[in-house]
Amino acid sequence: MEQSATDSRTAEEWKHTACILCECNCGIEVRLGGPDGRRFEKIRGDDAHPVSRGYACEKPLRLDHYQNGPHRLTKPLRRRPDGSFEEVDWETAIRGVAADLAAVRDAHGGKSILYYGGGGQGNHLPGAYGATTRSVVGSIHRSNALAQEKTGEFWVGSRMFGAFTRADFEHAEVAFFLGKNPWFSHGIPRARTTLKEIARDPDRCLVVVDPRRSETADLADVHLRVRPGTDAWLLLAMLGTIVQEDLLARDWLAGHATGLEDVLPRFRAVDVAAASAACGVPEATVRETARRIARAKSVATFEDLGVQMNRHSTLVSYLHKLLFVLTGHFGREGNAFIPVGLMPLLSGGGGADRRTPVTGARLVAGLVPCNSIPDEILADHPERFRALIVESGNPAHSLADSARMREALRALDLVVVIDVALTETARLAHWVLPVASQYEKAEATFFNFEFPENCFHLRRALLPPPSGLFSEAELHARLVEALGAMPHEAVRALREAWGEGRTAFRAKFFELAGGDPRFVKLAPVVLFRAIGDLLPEGFAEGAAVWALCQVAAMQIGPSMARAGFSGETAGDDLFDALLAGPSAVVFSVEEWDGVFARVGTKDHRIGLSIPELFEELDGLAAEAPLAPSREFPLVLSAGERRSHTANTILRDPAWRKKDVEGALRVSPEDAGRLGIVDGGHARLVTKRGAVEVVVAVSDRMQPGHVSLPNGLGLDFPSPGGPVTAGVAPNELTSGEDRDWFAGTPWHKSVPARVEAL
Ligand SMILES: Nc1nc2c(c(=O)[nH]1)N[C@H]1C(S)=C(S)[C@@H](COP(=O)(O)OP(=O)(O)OC[C@H]3O[C@@H](n4cnc5c(=O)[nH]c(N)nc54)[C@H](O)[C@@H]3O)O[C@H]1N2
Ligand SMILES: Nc1nc2c(c(=O)[nH]1)N[C@H]1C(S)=C(S)[C@@H](COP(=O)(O)OP(=O)(O)OC[C@H]3O[C@@H](n4cnc5c(=O)[nH]c(N)nc54)[C@H](O)[C@@H]3O)O[C@H]1N2
Ligand code: SF4
Ligand SMILES: [Mo]
């Protein structure tokens, strides 16, 4: 793909793309400018985007920090024996990485090569292309951030629905947010608009479960201010109320669910008063809220990190889903649904019977639990991981216990990092392979969860990469070539067939796919080599999406037909629409009546019974929730989303106008007791580490609860040497504090103390 900075698309025009700072991927328009025409001078919401419809929050205005910051790497780096890096040319890097990967494979088997990442909030195509290199070197184990947040929920969803569920907040009478602060973290389309609409309407009700008076709680009709880490008891009390007061959707359950007899007795026995006391919410409020949910025509719910990175998280996911299912809030407008994806990112939550090689941790959705990764490396075990490929992820910063993660990275025979920046993880790599930014290549995500109309956005490159850089598609194509695995004959044949038209191309592709299972695994790079440069300018990396469109046409044909893509050419028509659309394209249209057909259990009924979780559930009544100790009297939530946090995508601290250091929020009561003041400094100590923090005294915090933002403590190049602002939260967290089932961490309730300085 050849592009020049002076081509037709760099004129004084707004270009359509998407924000990459959270999973919503709102459509935005960018006006480029500056001396080299590469600055993101103006940014606005894209009215043409069918989901975000012009909406954008404050964060994308700062995207120039991502695109044009001094953190961008331009040359491959190789580690010298003394630990320093040297710049090498691409020829050397590709050959070296291919040889090193092959050496690990030959010595220990491909199963010893772990792949981490594959995409962040805005880029999922690297995962598709990276799968080709993985298949050539025989890497079967993988992990990514989902395995430190969503795997418990996936597994529960797969057991109950055979799928992952989302909910329709736009039409819901009651909106229920459990450990989720959408005012800042979004996660639903046009979050603030929707929240305000619900809050304004006297017939609708916004319920927020959060120990903190979050910005979403400010708008709420009901704020259930639990004590940190006690949501399991709150849900127990709510379910106890629903069962004991007979608020169940009995008729509906009779037709749509199985296993009711297994769960009802458990909640009939609950002491609602005791469970309410355990979570610190008045019993009357618990009962009122349970009744409000049960009686509502529609209820949409969302659980997120406040509970998913917390105690009893898999059980909480189960109780949360029981809450809306037992009250009948599934499969109708304004309630929960099963999204129909172009590429079902969040399916396959089952398979927890497969285990990791060293510690035997469950591979939910095929992912190695993030908290297990160091244990799978730092073991004297023949099957330990020996090599790690990290692509678009920063595990040395984002996973529990950074110190131990660094130790694990140092213990590996080979670490290859593919990133735009010299991250905390890249610093420990043997090879760092820089790539084009998300605005210098075609990109897309599979965070497509809308209903009844779902959209996919294949974004066109806004500008060419700086010289010497290229995309992951090109990188993996080169690696596959260097490993001697590129099927050149297939590439040639497909390229030729493209010239003959789509019918010939489809026929050739499926002929090749049918003849050789290896071809299927390499299809992304084969397609990229065959047609990448034949696609419209700026779309080369979209080549693999052609195959996704074909698969979608086979798997969700009726949904696509309702969106206007039908018949033999449905897949190609969709692909062409993606290339033509200035913005996202509606690829599937559902009917609410069809939701139950998507319930993936044997009888298409919701399975209420999950016996694996009964012991934990039944034990709650006798369990004492996390209590303050003399050593650690406080509970730390390590990693809150704020106005100026975006994981580690924006590394430049200057992108934050306020709260540059990312203050520790402390209640006025605790601050007074500890003798610390707003804007002052303090020492924050956990069993794992101690750091110095800036303090913000905030009446949003309840006494005993302190909170640090996520994504800070990154180093950033500056003329006087690297600067760091704020605290990296995982210097304070521990790997063993995790859910017994899914292995997800307890970052939101870390026992801690604060000392005045
Ligand atoms: N601005 C911004 N938005 C983002 C991101 C970002 O980095 N910055 N990251 C994106 C990503 S990757 C994700 S996963 C989502 C996460 O989105 P959220 O889960 O909404 O984000 P958090 O702020 O981490 O946690 C949500 C809330 O959990 C609360 N909480 C803490 N302890 C408890 C508890 O014991 N019980 C309950 N019920 N709540 C508790 C916190 O007070 C907080 O308000 O955000 C996405 N959006
Ligand atoms: N204590 C604590 N820890 C947490 C959390 C918390 O709340 N508390 N939140 C967790 C959550 S929910 C998540 S999702 C994770 C997120 O953590 P990670 O999954 O590690 O992801 P990001 O911080 O989004 O980093 C993405 C990386 O991609 C790089 N990148 C950007 N564009 C490109 C590109 O085009 N190509 C390539 N190859 N790389 C690119 C960026 O430079 C960055 O290094 O953090 C988790 N860690
Ligand atoms: S809601 Fe998320 S995707 Fe949308 S503009 Fe804000 S950060 Fe970007
Ligand atoms: Mo996340």
Describe what this molecule looks like in 3D.
The chain is an alpha/beta fold and 757 residues long. The protein contains 25 helices and 28 strands. Strands 5-4-17-16-15-6-7 form a seven-stranded mixed beta sheet, covered by helices on one side. The protein binds ligand MGD (2 copies), iron/sulfur cluster (SF4) and molybdenum atom (MO). The site of iron/sulfur cluster has 11 residues, from loops. The site of iron/sulfur cluster (SF4) has 11 residues, from loops.
> Major beta sheet, specifics?
7 strands, mixed
The helix-and-strand class reads alpha/beta
Low-confidence stretches: 1-11
Number of helices: 25
Strand order of the largest sheet: 5-4-17-16-15-6-7
Radius of gyration: 25 Å
State the CATH superfamily name of the domain at 164-338: Dimethylsulfoxide Reductase, domain 2
Share in β-strands: 15-25%
Shape: globular
The total beta strand count reads: 28
Spell out which ligands are present.
Answer: ligand MGD, iron/sulfur cluster, molybdenum atom
The CATH C-level name of the domain at 164-338 is Alpha Beta
Distance between the termini: 57 Å
In round numbers, the mean pLDDT is 96
Query: What is the name of the CATH topology of the domain at 164-338?
Result: Dimethylsulfoxide Reductase, domain 2
Helix content: 25-40%
Key traits:
757 residues, alpha/beta, Phosphorylase Kinase, domain 1, Rossmann fold, Dimethylsulfoxide Reductase, domain 2, six-stranded mixed sheet, 25 helices, disordered N terminus, binds ligand MGD, binds iron/sulfur cluster, binds molybdenum atom
